Write the C-alpha cells for this entry.
Amino acid sequence: MQLFSRDRMWRRHTLKDRYDVVIIGAGVHGLATAYYLAKSGVRDVALLDAGYLGGGASGRNTAIVRANYRTAEGIAFYDESLKLYEGMSQELGFNVLLSQQGHMTLGHTDAAMKGLRERAATNILLGVESRIIDTNEIGKLVPELNLSPEVRYPIQGALFHPRGGIIRHDAVVWGYARAVDRQDIQIHPHTTVTGIRVTNGKVEAVETNKGTVRTDMVVNCTAGWCSNIARMVNVDLPVTTHPLQACVTERLKPFLDKVIVSSSLHVYINQTDRGEIIIGEEITPYTSYSSRSTLRFLENAAAHALELFPSLHNVRMLRQWSGICDMTPDYSPIMGEVPQVKGFLVDVGWGTYGFKAAPVAGKRMAELIVTGKMPDLIKPFSISRFYEGQLVGEKAAAAVSH
C-alpha cells in the first residue's frame, strides 16, 4: 500500500526566453505575489531565486504573526494579513500549522505602559482585539514568568493580543510553492540575477546566470538584498541592511503557550510545537550582509531570557542563526512602482516585519500588477512618501525586532 505521494511539490523547469512577469526572490513575498497573480489569471510568471526555495529571510525568522501595530495604516494592513493567515490552510489545502496562542508585550516602566495603552486604544478603535492586562492576569496566563518586584526591571503589566501567535515558516513556503506550481507558474531556484536591462526608462529584460529573460514587468522581493537589485536599474532605495539573530534550545515539555516580548530587556521568547524555546532580540546595531551568528548575541539573549524565566538556567542551547533585514527610516515597507523606471515594482523594506505581511503584500501587489492601480491599502507605503514627508512611523510597534 502506498502511504505517500511520489509527486513533487514543485517541478523543475527550463528558463524560457520571455515571461509576462519576473519576480526576483522566491521567499514568501515572491511566492504570495505569484499565487495571487495566478488566481487573477496571470500565469506566465517566473520566480527567480539565487538560493534554494525559502533559504533567505523566509527560513531565517521566528515565525511570529500578529496585527497589534501602532499606526492606522499598519494596523489595517497587518490585520488583513493575519486574516489571510487564519484561512491559509484551507485556502492552500496544506496545513501551515498556525497556532494563535496569544502575543504578550511586557511593560516594565511607566513610560512603557503608557505606550502600550496608546497602542491598545488604537487597535480597539480599528477593530483589532488588544488589551492591557495586569500582573495577576499575566501570572495566570504564564505561571513560569518571573513577576517578582525584586528584579532589575519588574513587570508592571502587558499588552495582550489574543489572535497573535506563531506559524511554521517552512510550511508557508511549501504551501505557497505547491499551489503556485499547480497553477503552472515556474519556480527557478539557484538562478542568480546579474543585471536588469532598461531601455528608454522601461524594463526590457532580466539577465541571469542561466541566460537573459525578456519581460515588461519585474518585481523586486529580495528583502535584505533589495537595494542591490534596485541599483541594477539605477535606483537608490532608502534601505539599510542589518543582521537579526535568534537561537533555539533543546526540547522541553510544553510550559509556554504565549509569545512573550519585553521592550526593556530587548528579548522575545516562545515555545515551538516541538518543545524548543526560541529566543530573539534586537537587530544588530551596524549594517552588514553577514548571516554569521555572534557570541555577543548569545550572551545577551541568554541573560535576558533568564531574567524572565529563571527556570531555564540549566537548559542547553542547540543552535543559533542570523538573517538579514531591509530597514527603512520609518520601519515601514516600500511597495508599488518606482517612478524612475517603468515596469520595475518593489515589495521591500520590511525590516523585521516581513513574514507577518507576506499574504497581504502578495495579494495587493498582484492587484496592482493586474489592474495598474495602486490599492488603497498599500498607498501609504509608496516610495514617494520619503520625498513628500509622509512617513509611517512603525518603530514603536515592536518592543523588539520581530
User: Anything to note?
Assistant: The radius of gyration is 21 Å. Residues 354-371 form the longest helix (18 residues). The first strand starts at residue 21 and ends at 24. The chain has two domains: 21-62+169-238+333-397, 101-165+240-327.
